[in-house]
Amino acid sequence: MASLSGKVAVITGAARGIGRATALSLSRLGTDLVLLDIDEPPLRDLADDIGADHAIARRVDVSDFAQVQAAVDDGVSRFGGIDLVLANAGMASYGSLSMVDPAAFARVVDVNLTGIFNTFRAALPTIIERKGYILVVSSAAAFVPLVGFSPYNASKAAVDHLAASLRAEVGFRGVAVGSAHMLFIDTPLVQDASADLPSFFDALDELPAPMRAIISVDDCAAAMTRGLARRSRRVYVPSWVALTAWLKPVLASRIMDRLYAGIAERHLARVDAEVASLHRFTSARNVVSGNLPPEETSTLDG
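^ thats the sequence. predicted structure below, dont judge the formating
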């Protein structure tokens, strides 16, 4: 595995979960870090833990290109350039497509897709100069959709193709591009959804045990770190998720349509009822941290 010592990495969604664990993993290997997140208090705590000599933290809404560009410019000014990008910031909305708030749908796309573009676009000049590596975080949901999380599924599928498009455009310049695809990782996103939507996790019980296992963030961060060091084309967590990429045409077949129809019939109405009782379309943490502005958190009871 190539050395990451002396490299400079930008990480979005750095304050918690996969971003935080990967930042700590990279810092132990001697990587300097530009840490970006909308949730400032835990972001500052992370930067303090790593130390001012090796990390800077900036509060950024990744859907705002000007904010991302300013933060990346600060990182270039501080460390001389950027070698690695981990575009990890993401969120999910709750509820079926027939009831989800259009503003919540748009916000998920803004964060998960436009935010990925803004991140690598801001860093691209220095990445090209250094022949660096960009790893964008997609999901196994790009291949196997999760019922009740369609905006998330669609955005993650788009991210996968965006990575392929970027790779086609910058590969000849010596820049490598990868996409990461995970199942359920023990992140705040999964923890929040588990608490808010127990019926969704009841539906998961119908899947084979490996498909509903929840992986630790440290194991995921280890895979991310290996991917960054190896400039991997794909990172899968767990590794067998690669099969879902190969089997995507089968997973989009009429056989799967029948399976999904059964799952939706048994569980989707209960999931929607739980969303209605929450009076919000995303986690409370996302609302508080600013990922879904107050004017976009309309209630479900009129």
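The chain has one domain: 8-296.
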